[in-house]
Design a protein that fits this description.
CATH architecture of the largest domain: 3-Layer(aba) Sandwich
Shape: globular
Helix content: 10-25%
Structural class: alpha+beta
Largest sheet: 10 strands, mixed
Strand content: 35-45%
Radius of gyration: 19 Å
Number of helices: 6
CATH class of the largest domain: Alpha Beta
Distance between the termini: 38 Å
Order of helices and strands: EEEEEEEEHEEEHEEEEHEEEEHEHEH
CATH topology of the largest domain: Rossmann fold
Length: 313
């Protein structure tokens, strides 16, 4: 990203955003008034007394998240970039190394840093690839390697619009359960058919064995959540099975996203939102044999979801 004036207020992960640096993709415009999260370039230093709360590896870079005594979050992406989320979640400071590869730290910002800020502000998130049509959104949950993104691509090619590739923020209220759009990007296997990739988006960057793409058809605003599907690719039978989950709240909570050290009230908020989702939205388990391709799974979803949540033809 490079400074290029302040674009209009936009949205992602249920947050209103005011970036002082130009995003690599166009984010949906935010509707209505209200404060926005400032995203700016600046100096980021580890707060004295900060303690590491989470570590992992992303893009082959060591990622460490620490929480300072003030409640701030510090996120380090290898030695290429550091970020700070203020305790109230209203300011994100980015400090990329001068020679850092832009696409790598930009992708980390649009993914991990932004949803971390959403959690700080009390948003509730699920690990889910989510596709919408005119009737609402269908969230696809599953463990690592379940093929959520591949199924989402198949649904995009059948006329759907992207809500999220991996992290979905949900909210519930008088207007029902809403699915909030993530940034309109996806990560696809670099070995995938180039024609398939081109059919759903344009290439932003090739990062090792993944292609980072900007999706042609994202949703422009939050949409009603019509169904949640928990995908299981280890079904021993020869035919798929779709049925309601017996413990739908627990199924959602097991696939929700959190960070250590969030206020105790957050756990209660998360459970209440997920309980409302389970009460108002069908939570279904789809078991399919490993031999089923993403296209076959997409066809199963279109054919077997209740009519009120059926995907477009």
């Amino acid at each position: 990203m490079s400074p290029s004036g302040s674009p209009a207020t936009c949205q992602a992960y249920g947050l209103r955003l005011r970036p002082e640096l130009a995003p690599p993709v166009a984010l949906p415009r935010a509707a209505g008034p209200g404060p926005a999260v400032l995203i700016r370039l600046g100096d980021v230093r580890r707060e004295p007394g900060a303690q590491a709360i989470w570590s992992t590896s992303i893009d082959g870079r060591a990622v460490v998240v620490d929480r300072g005594p003030s409640g701030s979050l510090g996120l380090r992406f290898g030695d290429e970039a550091s970020f700070r989320v203020e305790p109230d979640g209203w300011t994100i400071t980015c400090a990329p190394r001068a020679d850092a590869e832009p696409a790598r730290w930009q992708r980390f910002l649009l993914d991990t840093v932004l949803w971390s800020a959403a959690l700080v502000q009390g948003r509730v998130a699920l690990h889910a690839a989510t596709i919408a049509d005119g009737d609402g959104a269908v969230a696809i949950l599953g463990g690592t390697g379940a093929g959520k993104t591949s199924v989402a691509v198949a649904l995009l090619r059948r006329g759907g619009a992207l809500v999220s590739d991996d992290v979905l923020v949900v909210s519930s209220g008088a207007r029902g359960v809403r699915a909030h759009p993530a940034p309109p990007v996806m990560n696809l296997d670099a070995a995938a058919d180039p024609d398939l990739r081109a059919s759903v988006g344009r290439l932003l960057a090739r990062l090792d064995d993944e292609d980072w793409i900007c999706v042609h058809a994202p949703v422009p605003a939050p949409v009603p959540l019509r169904a949640v599907v928990v995908l299981d690719r280890a079904h021993p039978g020869s035919q798929p099975e779709l049925h309601e989950t017996p413990q739908d709240v627990l199924a959602l909570e097991a696939r929700s996203i959190s960070l250590p050290g969030l206020p105790r009230a957050y756990a209660r908020t998360r459970f209440e939102v997920l309980a409302d989702v389970a009460a108002r939205v069908p939570v279904l388990a789809l078991s399919v044999p490993r031999s089923f391709t993403p296209d076959a799974i997409a066809d199963v979803l279109r054919a077997t979801l209740p009519p009120t949540v059926r995907m477009v033809a």
